[in-house]
Amino acid sequence: MTGDDRRDGGAVRIGLLGCGTVGQAVVRTLIDGGSTIERASGHRLEVAKVLVRDPTKERPGIDPSLITTDPGDILDDPTVSIVVEVMGGLDPTLDHLQRAIARGASVVTANKQLLSRHGPELLQAAEAAGAELRFEASACAAIPVIKVLRESLLAAEITQITGIVNGTTNFILTEMSRGGLSYDEALARAQQLGYAEADPTEDVNGADAAAKMAILSSIAFHSRVRIDDVPHEGIDRLQAEDMDHAGSLGFVVKLLGVARLLNGSVSVRVYPALVPRGHRLAAIEGPDNAVLLESRATREIMLVGPGAGGDETASAVVADVLSILGTHQGSFLHNALVDAGRTVAPPGAVESAFYVRMAVDDRPGVLARVASIFGDAELSIRTVVQSGTGDQARLVLVLHSGPEARMEEALERVRALDEVRGEPVMLRVLGSGAGGDAR
């Protein structure tokens, strides 16, 4: 950072793109904590301008003179050395960040969807311009998992990441499991408490978690993983009975992001899974997030904390700003994301253990026919629970570990049976609790 980047006796000028919940929290943190930040870092931070869509909206504690609707007031101002993006979306956000980087400004962003689609090109542009691109707040908010992967564990050879990376779904699943609520009831409660958006689609269908896992796996495995490379399933098809069955079998249900190295390729997926009660991730409840990092050097490290919220996300944003001011490692940090040339593994090649629930006609021989199909696919059944409901029966099976491609083929044959009613529900099982690797 040069003297030209400063004004008023050396203040570092920061421009904000966006002033919603997170943006307002960032401004408050920079202003209210200014003296503490200056003492700790040796830098005085100054908010230059804040880009908004609606200048008439009330923003308590923010000087109206800072508000602008013209992105050029930030993007084209040579005295603004750091641009903080908390506006979200892809358009015009991508163009804004490209403009800022092109003139040499460093960028801090919390935009997981943008990074999961355009992260590699933004990193390349930043390296070419001699600027920094920081994005700790894009995954798990206040949990410093990106910093740990980029710096502390850079040489640790990460082999697997398993995480609960969406607080909305973890809250919903906790309420369904602990409180006995239906999915709709738990979602409504999450919205009432502010843990879920009015439109929760990206959370409950797994897309939000998929974007975060694309970012984390790109860093951990030095690969170019984009959100389109991450198959994802959500929790919106789960029913209360799945939670009950999981509990009776010694599991809890969690929406997991799982990324691992598989025969030299990278496998990244998001899905609801049965987690053994004794597993560390089973204890993560409510809106909290947790990420379990595995490597040959460190074995297992788990990071836990709030994964969302204005103040929590703002703390990660400001930490990134201070990292830019306190380190001048530029190319070192960008090289932490260099492409090692690993391919993305096809989902069917992954092995897992499985939970399957289906409604069938309550007739002799049905279980034998279902078991025969799984046997033909070389999928071994560990546990069977059968309960009658009049003319129909409920079958719940837990199967040992096997290739997912075989499970899909077996489910196709099961669906075709005349005795099967409706769509079978299949969930994966984490850990060795089902007798297989299934991680």
Structure, described:
With 439 residues, the protein is of the alpha/beta class. It is built from 15 helices and 16 strands. It has helices at 21-32, 34-41, 72-75, 93-102, 112-129, 145-152, 167-178, 183-192, 201-204, 207-220, 240-248, 310-326, 330-335, 366-376, 404-415, and strands at 6-7, 11-17, 45-51, 67-68, 82-85, 106-109, 133-134, 158-164, 251-262, 265-276, 288-295, 299-306, 351-361, 381-389, 392-403, 420-429. It has a nine-stranded mixed sheet, with helices on both faces. Strands 1, 2, 3, 4, 5, 6 and 7 form a seven-stranded mixed sheet that branches. β5, α4 (93-102) and β6 form a beta-alpha-beta unit. α4 packs parallel to α5, α7 packs across α8 and α14 packs antiparallel against α15 (404-415). It is elongated and about 80 Å long. 46% of the residues are buried.
Beta fraction: 25-35%
Number of helices: 15
Largest sheet: 9 strands, mixed
Averaging pLDDT over every residue, what do you get?
88
Share of helix, binned: 25-40%
Structural class: alpha/beta
Outline of the structure:
By secondary structure, this protein is α/β, with parallel strands linked by helices. Helices cover 35% and strands 27% of the residues.
Could you name the key traits of this structure?
single chain; 439 residues; alpha/beta; nine-stranded mixed beta sheet; seven-stranded mixed beta sheet; disordered N terminus; disordered C terminus
